[in-house]
Specification:
single chain; 391 residues; mainly alpha; Serine Threonine Protein Phosphatase 5, Tetratricopeptide repeat; 2 domains; three-stranded mixed β-sheet; 3 strands; 65% helix
Length: 391
């Protein structure tokens, strides 16, 4: 994959090396008129999007998708009406922190970054930032800058590094997607996206004070994990730049300004996705963000059996002091909240087995098989139960 991107990049830069980078925004144009190299970039974007949209990485939640796109429409600039440009937002099922935009107005948001948001104003901050990259034609400007070649080639090497099952999305992105998702844009272009994006979300009626808070949450995640992520929004220096930029603008232009947060509506619609993303975090061994998200779910839904079960799994896999007892307590709570949920019974079965409580173990494992007759590990569980009988 990396050789393909490098070849594509070489060809693209060979064509664009001498082109100017001083481009007007789409709003200032009399109709959307793509330059020849820009049209090639749009064509490449469509090819990459088709591959991504038909993959198993797209998160399928019609209600959440409709909501996110409704927020994007609130941010749609009035002076763009009548132009041949629209925005469409897709979500990628991935717990790593990221969001990126293609030059033709197609935006992608990872569930991981969405799970760290607290309200609609923070979502509007991210969307308006990415939308500015589109309206101000940052993709073609970035590709036209010859000095970016070395940096982008380094990005390609980063994208080729495996980051676990859910980091492989970096490796499947094409030339345009990898630039937006992995390397991001130059400091000047990112700052322009911060400035214009904040103005856009504030003009739409959102609270500008929420803008830096989003990136503070992301920065906390990066610091806690202390692991290099393959994506732009997983970069500590870049996140700090966002925070600094937004705080400077709040002091200079938006002091005392307020607006809508729409916290309750946001939390209600996002809630089902939080559990799915916590499961992904757990699969990657990202215990802190998984635990934080699950605790957040239980604050609003104390009887959520799956959240209790996954918290038990966090404790069991993390295996720190007192985690064994904590895991068992969460499994028991999950069973109490929903006795028909199979997985906690399986977990308790193995807890009892390790303690030598074979009768209790067999009873829980039998409940698991009864509740989940088509369980993929059925043969394995039966073998365990037969062994216990012989013991």
């Amino acid at each position: 994959m990396s050789k393909t991107i490098i070849l594509s990049l070489t060809l693209l830069f060979g064509v664009w090396a001498c082109a100017t980078t001083d481009l007007p925004s789409v709003q200032s144009m009399d109709g959307l008129q793509l330059l020849p190299d820009e049209q090639r970039l749009w064509n490449r974007s469509k090819e990459e999007q088709e591959r991504l949209n038909t993959s198993s990485d797209i998160y399928d939640d019609p209600a959440l998708s409709a909501y996110v796109n409704q927020v994007a429409q609130k941010l749609f600039p009035e002076d763009l009406h009548g132009q041949e440009l629209s925005f469409q937002v897709y979500m990628i099922e991935n717990p790593l922190l990221n969001a990126f935009a293609y030059p033709n107005g197609v935006l992608y948001i990872h569930t991981g970054i969405l799970a760290r948001m607290e309200n609609e104003a923070q979502l509007a901050t991210l969307l308006s930032h990415e939308m500015t990259h589109v309206t101000h034609r940052h993709a073609v400007e970035n590709f036209r800058t010859v000095k970016n070649t070395t940096a982008f080639l380094a990005t390609v090497q980063v994208a080729a590094i495996p980051f676990g099952a859910y980091g492989n999305i970096a490796g499947m992105l094409g030339t345009v997607g990898a630039m937006a998702a992995v390397s991001g844009y130059s400091r000047d272009l990112e700052r322009e996206a911060d400035i214009e994006g904040l103005a856009r979300m504030a003009a739409a009626g959102y609270d500008p004070q929420e803008a830096p808070r989003l990136f503070e949450h992301l920065k906390q995640d990066v610091e806690e994990q202390d692991v290099k992520e393959p994506f732009f929004f997983g970069s500590h220096p870049r996140l700090q730049e966002r925070i600094t930029n937004y705080n400077e603008m709040l002091r200079a232009r938006y002091a005392g300004a307020s607006g809508a947060k729409n916290t309750e509506q946001f939390q209600q619609i996002v809630s089902p996705m939080l559990l799915d993303n916590a499961r992904l975090d757990l699969a990657m061994g990202r215990f802190r963000p998984a635990e934080r998200t699950l605790t957040r779910i239980l604050e609003g839904e104390p009887q959520n059996a799956k959240a209790h079960y996954y918290l038990g799994e966090v404790c069991r896999q993390r295996a720190q002091a007192d985690d064994r007892e904590k895991a068992e307590a969460h499994y028991r709570e999950a069973v109490e909240c929903d006795p028909a949920l199979p997985e906690p019974h399986r977990a308790l079965g193995f807890v009892y087995y390790k303690r030598g409580q074979l009768d209790a173990s067999a009873a829980e494992l039998q409940k698991y098989l009864t509740l989940s007759p088509d369980a993929p590990d059925r043969a394995y569980i039966i073998q365990y139960m037969q062994q216990m009988k012989s013991d």
